[in-house]
């Protein structure tokens, strides 16, 4: 996490984002929920060269990563979870998304950080599907099985949290929901089935009707899911590996 100072000031803040990116989605959801008027600048990463690697953007964020938030006074902050805290700190006249009451405040801070656990557990599946040659994918069967087990174990924590509160950290929507909802919504887009987690499934159905969730929903994402169903692909890899070993 870092802060920089830009040379130009603007009439409203700017968010550089990548469509469908969990980190960008988190920040957009918070901006809409807090009612902060901002200019969104979408950067495309599926083209060559990636727009995140342009000289213009690298001058703003040398790491070439989104989201990057440029405030009206020229301040620049990157990293999604850091931006969430920044918005709460430096936009005090907007809807507060972190409770003052100590026990709830603690839970919000903790859940914000915990939301990254599911991302970190899931990412190896995309590595296998998108970056591993097909002829080598069957050799990753054990890793896939272990990752799927870890995902279920992690989801069980969130299911448990929701047995105690309406939202992720307490009984009202907070920054913790901005941090977590895009993670689980992204996994659903990639084929995650939540039938084993009915409370979590109900939570998703509640959140996705909120105006902030609707406005921040990735552009052109179909309700039925993405073009590549990651969970179906990795389960097929396991099945095919078992057949090969019979």
TrEMBL record:
InterPro entries in the cross-refs: Glutathione-S-Trfase_C-like, Glutathione-S-Trfase_C_sf, Glutathione_S-Trfase, Glutathione_S-Trfase_N, GST_C, Thioredoxin-like_sf
Gene3D superfamilies: 1.20.1050.10, Glutaredoxin
Domain GST C-terminal intervals: 98-228
Residue ranges of every copy of the GST N-terminal domain listed in the record: 11-95
Family named by the database record: Belongs to the GST superfamily.
UniProt name for this protein: Glutathione S-transferase
